[in-house]
Each structure stands twice: as structure tokens, then as C-alpha cells.
Amino acid sequence: MSIANKLKKNYKKLTHKISRLVSDGIYRIKQANYRLQLPKLTKDGQKIVEQLNQEGIFMIPLEQLPFESNYSLLEALEKLRKDLIAVSSDSSIRDYHRGFKHCIPINPTKIARDYPELFLWGLDEKLLDIIENCIGLPVAYHGVIARKEIVDGQQIGSRRWHKDGEDRNIIRLTLYLNDVLDETAGPFEYIPRSLTPSYKAFEQNSDILDEHMSKVVPREKWKMCLGSKNTVVFGTVAKIFHHGKVPLQERMAVSFHYTSRNPLNEERCREFSFEKGIPLITAPLTMRQQECLWKYQKLLPKRSPQMYLRDGKMLTLLKPKTSGKSNY
Length: 328
Ligand SMILES: O=C(O)CCC(=O)C(=O)O
Fold this sequence. Notes:
Radius of gyration: 20 Å
Largest sheet: 6 strands, antiparallel
Shape: globular
CATH architecture of the largest domain: Sandwich
CATH class of the largest domain: Mainly Beta
Bound molecules: 2-oxoglutaric acid
Number of strands: 9
Number of domains: 2
């Protein structure tokens, strides 16, 4: 490389670093200004946020999250399991911008038509309260992905160790659709926040396989998220190294994705978003829920003014919840 080219490259790197530093500063100022507007949480909600900040992960059975929309979600999950068992690799890639190499997704359009409750659960006001407190800013909800793992023994895609890069802080909830009780089931695995290294610790920036991670963080420090069917794993996936362990069984899971409304990489947010399903979502949404749909809002079908004005509840999902002592 000529000296002129080297200088040009270094200049580009430097300007990129400076603009990132400036935008990080603005982000922190916005967080500080928003602090007093964050929704109040109960003790249980605070515990989730604290553990996410310390450890990077919080696990809980779905039934212990007393959200109004759990009831509808549980019903929809039963249907979804059957669809996922039946889905084949050639039937469901087309809704997404990029293919899924190691798993087979269900199309957002199918979810929106057949079980919108799945998407709507991610907009439960109490869940939004928790996510908003984690991110410290109003959130953008990118939607839900439902998928079944392909059992091929390969450590590819999100089975490689990574931190997600769409934003500075990203909250992802993974809900297991089958029991994930040992490593053969392909659990979500992570390095706790205090031990998570920087990408600089690796010679290569991508393609981090188990053998590479074990040289930087010993295997005994890695943590698997094991749980029965309907376990929910909250993760701060931009801040911790994590991956899905290579499964020996067809693990099925649903994940819900959140960033700030000014994410670092909009294009990546969109690659895996629920965008194609939004025009089919007809349930009434509160103003806040619509705002959480970020730029996807404009894809919603036209609504009557009353629908915009209803406050606080997703009216289609108002069946009573029986269990759950704590109140988030
Ligand atoms: O499959 C998993 O449990 C991990 C998924 C993941 O790491 C990701 O989507 O970024």
C-alpha cells in the first residue's frame, strides 16, 4: 500500500472514531435528560434491570411475568409449535432480506395473519417499561422472529460468538418453545458482562468459534441458559459475547428485539425486522405502542381516531391472568 493510501485509510479511521465518540456523547446526554421520564418499576421489574446491567442476562419462566398479554401468547405458542414442526427449509425464507443459514424462520406475514398475539406480546406496556429502563431511552421494537434450528453440527451464523452491532444497547428476549435442559438442546450461551472481552482480544473480528473463545475466556466461565419450555431469557446482546450452542436437536425459539430509536445501524435492524408483517397488524395500539414501532409505524393499516386515543391496554388481549404473584 502506498504512503498516500495508508494516510487516507488512517484518516478515515480517525474521523470514524471521532464521529462515534461524538454520537456516543450525545446518546449519553439524551439518556441523562430522559432519566426522570423513565416509567416507574416495581421491585421485581427493578431486579430484572439490575441483573441485566450486572450480568447481561436474566432468565424467568413466562408464567412468572404477569403481563396481561401472556394468556393470548400461550395460546398462540401452541399453534406456532405445530407450524414450526411442520415448516421446511424451502418454505419460509422469502420475507426476510437475508437468508437464515442455520435455522428456518416462520415468515412475519404468517405470524401477523395467524397469530398476531406473538408480535403484540412484545408491545405489552409492562414489558416496554422494563425494556425502556434497560435502554434508558424510548425504545424501538423491531418485532419477533420464530425459528427452528437445523441440526447440521455446524458452528455458523449466530452460533458463532458475537456481540450484536445494531445499537449501543440491544435487548433481546428469547423464549424457548421446547425444553432446553442440556447442551445438546442448543441453549443460548454467554460470557457474563464482567468477563466479556472486547473484539480486540481476537485476531479475527468475526468467525469466533468455541476454540477461539476458549483461548480468551476459559470454558468454565461460559454460562448456558437452561430452562424448560416457555422460559424467557432477557439479554443485553450488544454488551455480552453470546451465541446459540450447536444443537443436536431441533430447538425452537421465539425472539423479540429492541433498540433505541436512533440505532447505530438501521440497515441491520431492518434485515431481521418484522417489517413485512406490520401492514397486517390490525389490533388497536396505544400511542406509545405505535411510537415503539419506530419507522415501521407508517406501515400500519389505517386506524380510526378512537384507536389512537385508547390508553394503556391492548383491548384484544384482555383475558384475565390467573397466576403470578409479583407485579411488574
Ligand atoms: O440462537 C440463539 O440462542 C442465539 C441467537 C443469537 O445469538 C442472535 O440472534 O444474535
